[in-house]
Amino acid sequence: MRTLGLIHGMSPVSTVDFYEGVNARVNEVLGGNGSADMLLASVDFANVDHWVQAGAWDELRAHLVDKAVSLAAAGADFLAIGSNTGHIAADAIGGAVDLPLLHVGDVVAEEAAARGARTLGLLGTSVVTELPFYRNRLESHGLAVLTPSADDRAFAHRIVFGELSHGVFTDESRSELIRIMRGLIDAGAELIVLGCTEYGLLVADTDAPDIPRLDTNEVFMDAVSRAILEEPAR
């Protein structure tokens, strides 16, 4: 088993879901009392909110790099960022820490290809849908990426920081997010990427089951769990 160095806290709600999900997957393989060997560096989500609203990307990246350095020093064998938004720091972390970083964009691209999808409809915070880092990662795998209108992007961002990160899941927001998903399908998307770890907690598989969607939290937990169960490099 390898030791995961996990950067999360974005938000605490999805961090709990991620921690439980990874341990459940590892236990399915190991059985008994088996669980994941994991180090967690959890950020203060209020700081992340502040930097995002201010567009202070250098400060956000630097903070996440500091977390990665601390995990490397603590003995992690590889790193993962449990938040799609947090992947804004992926390249900076790769340049600062001599450890492999499992990137959610690569995992999403691999899963999309396995499902035969080439055009993705991307939902996420404004960091994910409006800055180039996430789109570029998907496009590097030969995928086309569609995003919602400016108003719909603002809504998808607002509910993450104002509702979902506080454990608030309303029927109104669920219906609105499904409307946005349908709009992307109508625009030509073959698969909706729920590019925020809280969206899958709001919109279940049983909600609008006719809309093909990829919950990044679920597929990333799968990939992280498989990586944990690999033999460490000697």
From TrEMBL:
InterPro entries: Asp/Glu/hydantoin_racemase (IPR015942), Asp/Glu_race (IPR001920), Asp/Glu_racemase_AS_2 (IPR033134), Asp_race (IPR004380). Pfam families: Asp_Glu_race. GO terms for molecular function: aspartate racemase activity. It comes from the Bacteria. Its EC number is 5.1.1.13. It is an enzyme of class 5 (isomerase). Belongs to the aspartate/glutamate racemases family. This is Aspartate racemase.
